[in-house]
Amino acid sequence: MSFASWGNALYSGRKSYKFIDNRKYLLIAGVALMLISVLAISVLGLERSIDFKGGTEFTISSVAGRDQAPAQKVVNANPKLKGSSVNSVGASSIRVQSVSLDTTAKRQVVSDLAKAYKVPEAKVAATTIGPSWGADVTYKALQSLVIFFILVALMLWAYFRTWTMAFSALFALCHDVLITGLVLALTRVEISPATIIGVLTILGYSLYDTVVVFDKVRELSVDFEQQTRSTYGEIVNLAINQTLVRSINTSVVALLPVTSILLISWITLGGGTLRDISLALFVGMIAGTLSSILIAPSMLMLLRSRTEKISSHTQKVLEKRAGGSDQIEGQAAELSRVAQPLKAGHHQGQQAQPKRTPRSKR
């Protein structure tokens, strides 16, 4: 079966994956991952960049290769540089980040690094970021996340006119943020302003994916309580299957350039801003795609299945099926909601015209 045929089968309902039937397991797995993420972030912590925690940064440019050993020797020999990090930046630069140093100590480090790499002192740049600046950047980053979540909640409530969809979408966004944080904590990649930009970007991407699924749910569930062929859970499951191919295509197209940037920045350039933002995008897009398909609809069904409207309708459908008065069963009931697929190259032509009575028999 080709990908196009597979997608056609999903959309028409001839093929269906039982996402909603397994919603409890999906939610348990999602919540477990979120708890593991919180635990890992709490124990390991996030490696904040100098932009957030403040300190002094030394950048040695015009270095032949990306050998970090000379800089590491300087760090080990200077007690004031204890706990400093050494990283390669780009193809010919080395970066050393330490706690805030006074002017005298800073000049000494510049001199030592210049001698270690046999470059003029002019090639060693020293920048100091105060703790107040770092605290302000941290506050702004957290503030932007809070504002984003508030605006998302208001927008979803206004668009869908139901708090269950808004809550489910926010739950999926929290899942994406925590999974991204888990990967950042495990890889020890620094959290920089570029990382925050990447996180906000993937939140928007994940939200868009979730809204597409929920919009399809709303479309298929219009006046659903007036029929007894499909339960609300079957309608939600059909909506997921109908948008599955679109979600896969969008994710693959978006991940291809992000993966290229991530590999180039990590392997060739050795890190930096491109790596920070591309890693957050890479992890967040994968988590966002999965959450929009598996987590958000499952949470929506968990919340709505407890309402009187949904539970009574589901009971009515199941009773009618058990009584044998409804000949349409399971997913076959969902086929009535979508157009039947046409065979390529085939049309009814004149067969679609009404039959006419011969002139002699009029």
Automatic annotation (TrEMBL):
- Transmembrane segments annotated in the record for this chain: 25-46, 141-160, 167-185, 191-208, 248-267, 279-303
The domain of life for this entry's organism is Bacteria
Please indicate if the UniProt record lists Transmembrane helix as a keyword. yes
Example of a GO biological process term: protein transport by the Sec complex
Q: Where is the Protein export membrane protein SecD/SecF C-terminal domain?
A: 115-304
- GO cellular component term of the entry, any: plasma membrane
Keyword Transcription regulation annotated: no
Chain intervals for the UniProt region annotation (Disordered): 339-362
Q: Where in the cell is it found?
A: Cell membrane
List keywords of the entry alphabetically.
Answer: Cell membrane, Membrane, Protein transport, Translocation, Transmembrane, Transmembrane helix, Transport
Membrane topology per record: Multi-pass membrane protein
- Care to name a GO molecular-function term for this sequence? protein-transporting ATPase activity
Q: How does it assemble?
A: Forms a complex with SecD. Part of the essential Sec protein translocation apparatus which comprises SecA, SecYEG and auxiliary proteins SecDF. Other proteins may also be involved.
Read off the PANTHER family from this record.
PROTEIN TRANSLOCASE SUBUNIT SECF, PROTEIN-EXPORT MEMBRANE PROTEIN SEC
Role played: Part of the Sec protein translocase complex. Interacts with the SecYEG preprotein conducting channel. SecDF uses the proton motive force (PMF) to complete protein translocation after the ATP-dependent function of SecA.
**Annotated family:** Belongs to the SecD/SecF family. SecF subfamily.
> Which NCBIfam families would you find in this protein's record?
transloc_SecF
Q: What protein name is recorded for this chain?
A: Protein-export membrane protein SecF
User: Can you name the source organism?
Assistant: Varibaculum cambriense
